């Protein structure tokens, strides 16, 4: 897949999709698959037009947390079969361009769009004045085809990145997974912990959260830990600052592996931690013994979860 930071002048007709694409969920996958299908049926290349930074990041003057990193989103688009990704610089000029000029000068004038595929909630142009209805109207004027893809719903409401982020921040990881189409996860190289969990006679692995990615609600979860050799282990995972052991403000993801040999060493190995169910909030205990008693209870509850899964 070709990745461009500048808006190119394309000679051949293209099938184009526009949007933020600030995460990978069922709605985005459905839209991208429709884009690729349309490009194949029309013997064109598929082209995604998005913004860098995302408009909300631009207006907040800082990078907000998102469902996926930009690298992950690129990988997903490649896997789906997108031919070209344009990550145009979102600046004052682009922000103040009228919706009609955006279609005329960029989508048609630059990208040579013959087919435009977008979601029913598409928004573009100054103040977000452009929408699906305007695209359908302009398609008659400029002679391109417009395919409007309906939003996918979950529990009677449209799936969106903001809704999934809210679910994760509320600890509703099962709802988030249903809307994503996969279990939400964090990944990273295993780092050294404080060694306090050795008394449980099971490996304990610590990773730092992926920068820029949404962190689930602080607390304890039933999880699956996948290792670099693609083995999976049931685990109890704590997300948070571990107030009992005085970790300050550093957020840590610590997992106790339930069905792994106790002598297995994971240091500096890359792992994925998949969040399956929220058990309880993180809290401060009066002593390490109180903490360990609670962890034993969490382990029992997690084993029960997997027995009935």
Describe this structure in words.
- The chain contains nine helices and 14 strands.
- The protein has 309 residues and is an alpha/beta fold.
- It folds into two domains: 2-151, HUPs (Rossmann fold); 177-307, Elongation Factor Tu (Ef-tu), domain 3, CATH 2.40.30.30.
- The two termini are 39 Å apart.
- It is elongated.
- The strands form three sheets. A six-stranded parallel β-sheet has the order 1-4-3-2-5-6. It has a six-stranded antiparallel β-sheet with strand order 9-14-11-12-13-10. Strands 7-8 form a two-stranded antiparallel sheet.
Number of helices: 9
Major sheet summary line: 6 strands, parallel
Q: If you average the pLDDT, what whole number results?
A: 92
Instruction: Tell me the count of domains.
Output: 2
Q: How much beta, percentage-wise?
A: 25-35%
The N- and C-terminal alpha carbons lie at a distance of 39 Å
Number of strands: 14
What's the architecture of the largest domain, going by CATH? Answer: 3-Layer(aba) Sandwich
Q: Structural class of the secondary structure composition?
A: alpha/beta
C-alpha geometry = elongated
Task: Write down the CATH class of the largest domain.
Answer: Alpha Beta
Q: What ranges have pLDDT less than 50 throughout 5 or more consecutive residues?
A: none
**What is the spatial order of strands in the main beta sheet?**
1-4-3-2-5-6
CATH topology of the largest domain: Rossmann fold
Order of helices and strands: EEHEHHEHHEHEEEHHEEEEEEH
State Rg: 23 Å
Helix content: 25-40%
